Amino acid sequence: MNESIKIKSTRIAKIIKKLKNEYPDSKCSLVFTSPYQLLVATILSAQCTDERVNKVTNKLFKIYPDAKSFYNLSVQEIGELIYSTGFYNNKAKSIKNMSDIVYKKYRGEIPNKLNLLIELPGVGRKTANVVLGNVFNKAALVVDTHVTRISNLLEFSKSKNAVVIERELCGIVDKKDWSILAHLFIDHGRKVCIANRPRCNKCVIYKLCPSAT
């Protein structure tokens, strides 16, 4: 399906409009009360469901709500607290090292610039964009597995590389919709466009999808 940038822009705008109507309450499903808490929760969400992360952080943040409180914990202590999220050793190291830098260098405040965020341990472009879009209200397009898969199915990108997909989507999506796009695709991917068993007969955007069956 060969489309010009203009045609792709028009098609994805129609898709976003339909998905907004279908999922009017679409938003980040991680629970947090500060930029720091969202950053920790997003690190924990790797290879783990948001539901599980929220169960862990619900208890965790009541006792350790900020960078200062994590600064006073050891990697082993953090690992024990986040054990059920999986890959806890690597996550604990990332959270500890990130917290130390945030507490000492940024006085406990999370920086609100992409280049500074991705310098923090455990923080890649996806995690940084989650924070920028959801707490700093900056135009930031998150590319996760749902966004990758659905962007491929909709033929807006043929790549599996998150950076490439982000660049291609930013080129056709209205900037004001960059942040909401991931939430819409995630909701749609969980409820209708399910991996390996898409419910095309229940899909509100099937007429706009080249892969619909």
Please write out the topology:
Elements: H1 5-22, H2 35-44, H3 50-63, H4 67-71, H5 75-81, H6 88-105, H7 114-117, H8 125-134, H9 145-153, H10 162-170, H11 178-191
Account of the 3D structure:
The protein has helices spanning 5-22, 35-44, 50-63, 67-71, 75-81, 88-105, 114-117, 125-134, 145-153, 162-170, 178-191. It is mainly alpha-helical and 213 residues long. It has 2 domains: 5-27 and 141-208, Endonuclease Iii, domain 2 (Orthogonal Bundle); 35-134, Hypothetical protein, domain 2 (Endonuclease III, domain 1), CATH 1.10.340.30. The longest helix has 18 residues, at 5-22. The protein is elongated, with a radius of gyration of 18 Å. The chain starts with a helix and ends in a 22-residue tail after the last helix.
Write down the overall mean pLDDT: 97
Give me the count of strands. Answer: 0
Percent helix? 55-70%
Q: In the residues, how many domains can be counted?
A: 2
Q: Rough shape? A: elongated
- The fold-level CATH name of the largest domain is Endonuclease III, domain 1
Q: Work out the strand percent.
A: under 5%
Q: How would you classify the helix and strand content by structural class?
A: mainly alpha
| Strand and helix order | HHHHHHHHHHH
Uncertain parts = none
**Quaternary structure type:** single chain
| CATH H-level superfamily title of the largest domain | Hypothetical protein, domain 2
CATH hierarchy, class of the largest domain: Mainly Alpha
How widely separated are the two ends? 16 Å
In CATH terms, what is the architecture of the largest domain? Answer: Orthogonal Bundle
Radius of gyration: 18 Å
Biggest sheet character? none
Tally of DSSP helical segments: 11
